[in-house]
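so my prof wants the structure for this chain in the tokens format not the other one, which i didnt know existed until like an hour ago. anyway here's the sequence
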Amino acid sequence: MFNSFVNVNRMSVLRQVFVRCVVLLAAVALFCGSPAEAQKRKKKKGRAAAEESSDRLLSALPDDRAIDLAISEMLAAWQIGDLGRLHKYYADDVVVVSGAWEPPVTGWENYAKSYQSQRDRTQNVVIDRTNTYIKVLGNIGWAGYQWDFKAMVDDKTTTWRGHTTLIFEKQKDHWVIVHNHTSLAQEAAGAQPRATPDPPTQAPPL
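here's what i got, hopefully its the right format
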């Protein structure tokens, strides 16, 4: 009888150890996740660190240079289709005037929908910015520049050329776009034909 009691007691202890091991393994699996999930977390952490580094750099620069860098990063986000990164440089109450004959787009949400609709039709984007002029007055800054846009739009090689004027406002030590006015440049007389849809469906606000 004593031996039976000892055996039962041993079984109870072994069962408890087994249960604890299962719980521990489950906790480790939950924490570590799959390799894909681990890679995703690592990528997200790296992106957050890069954005934090960019924010520190922007805040340390003189205002005109900070705006110039903000324009570069905004255009880079436009090219790669990173809507979250693009939002970083646009105010929630932004007003956007495109090169198309259409009403101004008001508010970030409306602009994001318009951008995404166009970006879904666009691949292999290359944007070159030239002749940038920046002026700062207190918490307001404005910038004007010329741009060349090349991409595949609706499976057609497309090039546009134009001008953009941006008005920035400094909000919480961060320069954001509150107004974007983009216009297409007319081709000079006698210029060689360009591979551009006729007429262009919509010039991108850049």
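also thought this was worth mentioning. Residues 2-32 form the longest helix (31 residues).
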